[in-house]
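hiii, so i know i said id send this last week but things got crazy w the move. better late than never?? heres the sequnce for the chain we talked about at the cafe, plus the structure i predicted for it. fair warning i was half asleep when i ran it
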Amino acid sequence: MKASVLALVIFFHVGCGWALTMIDPPAIVVGEAPPMEVRMVATETPPQPQIDVPVPEDTPPPEPELESMIQPPPPDLPPPAFPVQAPPPPPPKPKPPPPKPRPQQATPSPAPPQPQAPPVQSSSVPKMVDASQVSFLVRPSPIYPAHSRRNNEQGVVMVHVLVDAAGRPSQVSLASSSGHQALDESALSAVRAAQFRPYVEGGAPHAISVNVPIKFVLQ
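okay and structure toks below
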């Protein structure tokens, strides 16, 4: 039912469109119009009034152009010549005074040679003195041997000493034995370590020889 109605509507529209195309429109006749002429007419311009503009008195003068301010450099001029005055000659130096004559010094006459004291002839053998005439700076300190103490060994050892001018024992020897070798060796070692006071005679130290007794006694 709907399809038949739609087909009728389409057929109606198509028929109306075909009928409109078959109608001829009336022809419009346009007559010929006369040509138009256009002229350009100049309009008169009214004169413009002149207005006098007063010039202020404080108006600064026009600045000069830059080209007129830049002047070309002057040509190279020679350097000025300054007069140079020569220095005055130096004054002549004064002559030094003549040297004064030096007084002649009297040459001292050589002193007569003084007689030399005869050299002290040292005897080849030192003077033998008694043990009571010598003193010690460092006294001999003998050590009692332990073996001799256990065996009750006692005695006196006489040590012969050659003492130089400075008081040193230069030679030490055994003058007389105690009868025990251990006591003799201990006495010799003690005298070698001693220091004598220099023996002075006539204002001068001398070498001497002396016998020093060393006693070993058990108490």
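btw The domain at 127-137+153-216 is CATH 3.30.1150.10 (Fusion Protein Consisting Of Minor Coat Protein, Glycine Rich Linker, Tola, And A His Tag; Chain: A; Domain 2). thought thatd interest u
miss u guys!!
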